[in-house]
Design goal:
Strands 1-2 form a two-stranded parallel ribbon. α5 runs parallel beside α6. It has a domain of about 55 residues. The chain has about 140 residues and is mainly alpha-helical. About 50% of the residues lie in helices and about 5% in strands.
Length: about 140
């Protein structure tokens, strides 16, 4: 089993192993751009919104003395330049300016969040705990 999204994409696209790839949208976009992805991909709607959080960890930045640069980087991620870079690499933007730049570059999709399933505790129990839905799906494929 691949250890991350990129390895899963490489296994499916470059080594042609597997019948189906369940992965992040940006992986398909990037693989299509390089010409490695040669089959259609489906983006289901509705779909779950995956948010990439950023945090400045006080204990770490104080220890390393890099608070200013770390906070500046966190702030930079929401600038038009950073949002444009995200879009150009297959990620959906989160700011109004980024969304304006991305207009027409992504398939339309209705999204929902993990809160629709009762939050992370409920999701971890129902889907990812031992014997959960994820285990049930994989046990049928073996």
């Amino acid at each position: 089993m691949p250890k991350d999204a990129r390895e899963a994409t490489d296994t499916f696209v470059k080594r042609r192993k597997g019948d189906v790839l369940l992965n992040y949208e940006n992986e398909a976009i990037l693989a299509k751009r390089t010409g490695e992805w040669t089959v259609p991909y489906i983006l289901p709607s509705p779909n779950i919104l995956i948010e990439g959080p950023i945090a400045v960890v006080d204990k770490n930045v104080d220890k390393h003395g890099n608070r200013k640069v770390t906070e500046a980087f966190a702030k930079f991620l929401y600038t038009p330049a950073a949002q444009k870079a995200f879009v150009n690499n297959g990620f959906r933007p989160v700011t109004a300016e980024g969304k304006a730049y991305a207009r027409g570059k992504f398939k339309q999709v209705e999204t929902f969040t993990v809160n629709s399933f009762g939050g992370w505790d409920a999701v971890n129990t129902e889907f990812f705990a031992k014997g959960g839905l994820w285990d049930q799906i994989f046990s049928k494929s073996r």
